[in-house]
Specification:
Elements (H helix, E strand, L loop, with lengths): L48 H4 L14 E5 L24 E5 L2 E10 H6 L4 H24 L29 E4 L9 E3 H13 L9 E4 L1 H9 L5 H4 L5 H4 L4 E2 L2 E5 L16 E6 L4 E14 L5 E14 L5 E8 L1
Parallel strand pairs: 4-5, 4-12, 6-8
Antiparallel strand pairs: 1-2, 3-11, 6-9, 7-8, 9-12, 10-11
């Protein structure tokens, strides 16, 4: 039996303003004799936020408060000592950084009772599993876009390097044209290995520790790594080449992550065909989630169960010196 779907003339409306009627409507369609219990596998974009940020301050805002005031270490001045001179007194002071919890995402779904009875699948579990993945993708995308331009000025641009001041990491309009190997002297083109070395250099010149370094690359650059000199196992020190095992592992002290969520093109404020590459350590970025809740409740407007979820969170670049940025395009 198929139940009619409520339309514009329904009083009161089953789907209030802002809601959407499912397409196709589930009413009377999930009948066991008509539908397979095997769902088509759904694949999700890989997320990297948990690997590139720290959550050191999350516990401080879990129960109350909408922001965390983070104190930073002061820089102490070392002075020359003279045996016949007075000692100068210094009162160390440092900047404070605010981590606001000012962002939120939600979903709100309804499963009508008649649909639940006729369905041969656990709809609530299926929907909540998908929602959890969508939460991660949406938040990752937002944070990665928000990092654009937050690296220290010496860690990006065409004159990067706090000491050398001559490391070209590309800018929008004149990005680095990245190739796998053998650029053959073509102006503006660099090997992928060269790009990773440049990112490592600017972090070195900022005295960033070597341990815990990461780099996030778009998928097309990861393919170039497999075609570069690093495909030779004898050069990477591995027993099996990355062409054999498919693992990128570590290059120049960086743990490599691949993401399709990196900002790119005009939608991110870049030129068409341009991509961002980020590198750094977890010290540079902090993330905190205050509320991460999924709940079910009975609908007061119709016979059905509501499934809704909320995530309230915030992120902050604590130290731009621990982040590096390159603007690249396929060469």
């Amino acid at each position: 039996m198929a139940f009619p779907v409520a339309g514009a003339g329904t009083t009161p409306p089953i789907y209030p303003t802002g809601s959407a009627t499912p397409t196709p409507a589930y009413s009377g369609t999930f009948i066991p004799v008509l539908w397979s219990t095997k769902l088509i596998e759904k694949f999700y974009a890989s997320t990297v936020l948990a690997a590139i940020s720290n959550t050191d301050y999350e516990g401080e805002i879990k129960n109350k408060g909408d922001k965390v005031i983070i104190r930073t270490k002061p820089t102490i001045t070392i002075k020359d000592y003279r045996s016949d001179g007075l000692l100068e007194v210094e009162r160390p002071s440092s900047n404070i950084v605010e981590l606001p919890i000012d962002k939120g995402k939600y979903f709100n779904l309804i499963l009508d009772d008649v649909m639940e009875v006729q369905a041969d699948l656990n709809m609530m579990n299926m929907w909540s599993d998908d929602a959890a993945q969508q939460f991660k993708i949406v938040v990752d995308t937002e944070v990665l876009k928000g990092l654009l331009g937050t690296a220290d000025t010496w860690n990006r641009g065409t004159t990067a390097g706090a000491i050398s001041k001559n490391v070209n990491l590309g800018v929008t309009g004149t990005p680095l044209q990245v190739v796998a190997r053998n650029p053959a002297g073509t102006a503006g083109k660099v090997e992928i290995v060269d790009l990773l070395v440049r990112l490592g250099q600017v972090l070195d010149e900022q005295n960033i520790p070597e341990t815990g370094r990461w780099v996030v690359l778009p998928a097309w650059i990861s393919s170039q790594i497999k075609m570069s000199e690093l495909r030779d196992a004898s050069l990477t020190g591995d027993s099996v080449s990355i062409l054999r095992n498919g693992r990128l592992g570590m290059v120049d002290r960086f743990t490599i992550y691949v993401s399709n969520l990196l900002p790119s093109g005009t939608a991110a404020g870049l030129a068409a065909g341009e991509w961002v590459v980020y590198a750094g350590t977890q010290h540079g970025l902090t993330f905190a989630s205050q509320i991460n809740k999924v709940e079910t409740l009975r609908s007061e407007m119709t016979f059905g169960t509501l499934l809704r979820g909320l995530q309230v969170y915030g992120y902050k670049v604590l130290d731009g010196k621990a982040l590096a940025q390159a603007i690249v395009t396929p060469g």
